[in-house]
């Protein structure tokens, strides 16, 4: 009969029938204890196992409706789902993240009561869990992050991000948008941690359960959120960096205080970085990674701006060297800007920033050096910039203002000294890349945390609730 009416089967009705069947079998087993020739335990219950796809389909529908509701709440700015900047001093995970894991916990618990072989049904449920986690990651988190082009990945979320544009197409975020981006980061981080806990619980019943791809997805979103914040910060510094090449450095005949463009960079970052530090106060490891990525990418852009300054007089190079030192000192202090607690920056951060800015200093020292013979110049250049190549050397020679004949002799001497390695691509310091993979970002974050940046979690009560009795 059940086979004939399979399309009409309802999950609730099926569950009700299974519950009463189990009660009936329990009474029979109590009245007639199992013997060699008969055993009433699961004698009828097992018949329902082949129809439990009804349960799986029902849970998929419930979870999809839940995720759609979450996305609609985020899209509409519902205060029960989207945290308010006015009501919170730091970024907090979306409430739906905890609701999702509680719902998944309920599904896992119910599957243990329905099947006579619960572990067999659990395998199917794990597939549902994977799909739910991925759909939440993409539909409720990634979809609401601005993209690199200043648009959102979901056109229906235009009301959430009204991006501010100045003279360029660089992405700019308002304080509310920065807050929401940090909340998405916090949500993804919390989901990744809780997914690991869920995997450990499931592995107790199903050895070999692997949710690493889902964790990688969530950590990837934290990396995307950091990239959005970094792009916003460095984009606001572009005007100051572009101003460097507009100065006639060949006409500079003395060294004074730091140049105005350094003050402009300092002013912008001083007004924004402390706010992000407060927003990420519960996830300081990510703030440390944000600072490292921002500082090294700014250093990379600064070096690019220096290459566009040509020619440069000796006094001009000295002024730029002073500016470079000022920028380096500021970037090293950036993680603790305007902080009531003077904390020493992590060693990984200091090393990353120093490596990035040292290149700018070495370039300017080469520009300031006197040219005697091509061989002496190449020796001096390779000592200061051992990981360079002919392309960079050409740019430095242009900055130096050398004649083409002199440049040709030096380039030939450089190629003679290094051979094929002369045209190799220079190594990129840590943090200078345009993007990191989720795994690289996670490794960088973990190294920051291990270097003295302890993290606190604002959802301990919810974590305990979610972890309990999966």
Automatic annotation (TrEMBL):
InterPro entries, per the entry: Vps53 (IPR039766), Vps53_C (IPR031745), Vps53_C_sf (IPR038260), Vps53_N (IPR007234)
Q: From the record, what ranges are coiled-coil?
A: none
Where in the cell? Endosome membrane; Golgi apparatus, trans-Golgi network membrane
Instruction: Pinpoint the Vps53 C-terminal domain residues.
Output: 318-402
> What is the membrane topology noted in the UniProt record heading this document?
Peripheral membrane protein
> What GO biological process terms are annotated to this protein in UniProt?
retrograde transport, endosome to Golgi
Q: Does the keyword Cytoplasm apply?
A: no
PANTHER family for the chain: VACUOLAR PROTEIN SORTING-ASSOCIATED PROTEIN 53 HOMOLOG, VACUOLAR SORTING PROTEIN 53
Provide the protein name.
Answer: Vacuolar protein sorting-associated protein 53 homolog
